[in-house]
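Chain A, query sequence.
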Amino acid sequence: MDSRSHTPVTAALRLCLHALLTGLLALVAVRAVGEGAPHTGAVVALTLVTAGVYGAGALAGRPGPTGAGVRAGAGARAEAEARATSVRQRASMRPGTRAAALWLAALCALWLGLLVLSPDALWVAFPLYFLQLHLLPTRWGVPAVVVTAAAAITSFVVHRQEIAPGAFIGPLLGAAVAIATVLGYDALFRESERRRELIVELVATRAELAEAERTAGTLAERERLAREIHDTLAQGLSSIQLLLRAAERTLPGDAPAAAHVRAAREAAQANLAEARSFVRALTPPDLEHGSLAAALERLCARTTGPDLTVRFAVSGTPVELPTPYEVALLRTAQSALANTVRHARAGRAEITLSFMDTSVALDVVDDGRGFDPSGAPVAERGDGGFGLPAMRSRAATLGGTLSVESAPGQGTALAVTLPVAAPAEERAA
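Chain A, predicted structure.
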């Protein structure tokens, strides 16, 4: 007997089925002997053969310890896959289930022979209902149950030489109960397996999300530290260096304090270089091995897919930008492209990095479905996004601006502009 699940509940159900069929076969043999019915010897012999065939099939279908050990050692995911494979095998009549179907056919043939010899054999139809529905696909199991019920009714009419309502109601009612029970159990079993697989996937996804959150938290903390070092220590050391340089120019060359001022200025300059190296070490990974333009080009290459083509272009003469500027522009491009992929349904997008005399601009344009910028904020629309407010806040922190132009069905154009006059003067000093 092929068994799909070996939980205590299903094991108890199998034992009940074994006991029911064995008891009914014993009843047939005992009544044949007790009543001195004709063909008593044949009835007893056929009953024993039927019991032997059934017992052989039941023992052959019992799971061995090796399979259980494999399931226990493979983990929850392997167990769920094994259960799903068992269900698919049952539905597709693979070699194992074909052998079970042949065993069931032999059992039914013996029952039909017993049914011809004894009217009491019709009660054996009830456990046969469950066997047929369990071992055969639904499209074959239900017709087999109907045929079995018809054979039981015919046997009663032939042996009793009368037509009684109970002769029809009993087998038909038993068939209906068996069909409803087995189909209901199958539905519960499949739902249980779907939930089991979902739990396994959720556990794996939770681990992946935890790793992604740790990585994102690490990158965010590195970016925050880089910004803090640049805005506090580096700026303070730069101011100290400028003041010491001015003081050094005003002192006579032979003044006693000139050497101390020069040493202090050189120490401030060395510490400023060290602070800037810390900032470079804490920059996002995309900026560690190249310029901002190279990082944006790699971003476009990663985002390009079968449904979206992303191109990158540089306008003007590239100049070295402060690390916070590069981080802000890269993060803005990443967020804008993420919105394009998730919401725009665009076929083409283009990123342009423009270097001008007193500013640098980043433009992200797509041909997607667009939206109404004057409508409700993204957070109020319920999709959980805060991309535009974060980009606008990041640009405002650096003294820049963010503008968005879009309309339903006309694509979206996003532009962020940052001033570079102050950093240029700082480098010149």
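The beta strands are 309-315, 348-355, 359-366, 401-406, 412-419. The chain has a mean pLDDT of 76.
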